[in-house]
Design goal:
By secondary structure, the chain is mainly α. The chain is built from six helices and two strands, in the order αββααααα. The structure holds cytidine-5'-triphosphate (CTP) and magnesium ion. Magnesium ion (MG) binds at residues 117, 179.
Length: 181
C-alpha cells in the first residue's frame, strides 16, 4: 500500500470512532452514568459522561459507518483506492469502543485529581482510539487484521491527535464545547 492508501484507509476505518466524541458533546446532558457516585473523594466519572451523550455518540458512529458503507464503492473508484468495507461487528465495535475508551479516560482523570473538563494531554487524544481498536480487535479479529495492518495503525496514531485537536478547536470556536481539547 502506498502512503495515500494507508492514510485514506486509516481515516476511513476510524471515522465511526471519531464521530462519537463530537456527537456526544451535542447529545450530552441528563443523568450522569455514575449517578453522582464518588470514590475516594472524587466522582467516579463526573458529570461529563452521561447516558444520553454516550447513546447519541454510539448511534452517530453506527449511522456514519452505515452511510460510509453505502458510498464506499464509488468513493473507492474515484480515489483509486480499495477502501475497507465495515463488517457488522466493526460497525458496532468502533463507536462503542471509542465511547468506552473516553469513559475509561474520565475514570483515570478523576483518580488523578483532575476535575471535569481538565486536560490530560495524550490521554484526551488517544483514549478513544485505544478503546475502538481494542474492541474491534476483540469483536471481529479477522476484519481488524485485514484492515489495521501495522502501517495503518501507525497512521492512525499519528493522525488522530491532529484531527482531534482540529475538530475540538472548531467545536470550541463555535461555542459547542467548553474547552478546546
Ligand atoms: N459527553 C457525554 N457523555 C459522554 C461523553 C461526552 O454526555 N460519554 C458530553 C458531556 O456534555 C461532556 C462533553 O460531551 O461535557 C464533552 O466531552 P468530554 O470532553 O469527553 O468531557 P468533559 O466534560 O471534558 O469531562 P472529562 O474531564 O471527564 O473528560
Ligand atoms: Mg474534555
Amino acid at each position: 500500500m502506498n502512503l495515500a492508501a494507508i492514510v485514506a484507509t486509516a481515516i476511513w476505518a476510524m471515522l465511526p470512532a471519531y464521530v462519537p466524541n463530537n456527537a456526544a458533546v451535542l447529545g450530552g446532558g441528563g443523568r450522569p452514568i455514575d449517578g453522582g457516585r464518588t470514590w475516594r473523594g472524587a466522582r467516579l466519572l463526573g458529570d461529563g459522561k452521561t447516558w444520553r451523550g454516550t447513546a447519541v455518540g454510539i448511534g452517530a458512529g453506527v449511522l456514519l459507518g452505515v452511510a460510509l458503507g453505502m458510498i464506499r464503492d464509488p468513493v473507492s473508484v474515484v480515489l483509486g483506492i480499495g477502501l475497507p468495507v465495515f463488517s457488522i461487528g466493526a460497525l458496532l465495535a468502533l463507536p462503542t469502543g471509542a465511547m468506552l475508551g473516553d469513559i475509561g479516560a474520565s475514570f483515570l482523570k478523576r483518580r488523578t485529581g483532575r476535575q471535569r473538563g481538565r486536560p490530560f494531554p495524550g490521554l484526551d487524544q488517544l483514549d478513544f482510539v485505544v478503546g475502538a481498536l481494542f474492541l474491534a480487535a476483540v469483536v471481529d479479529p479477522a476484519w481488524f487484521g485485514s484492515v489495521f495492518t501495522l502501517p495503518v495503525i501507525v497512521a492512525v496514531i499519528v493522525l488522530t491527535p491532529i484531527l482531534h485537536l482540529v475538530t475540538n478547536g472548531i467545536a470550541y470556536a463555535l461555542g459547542l464545547k467548553d474547552e478546546p481539547w
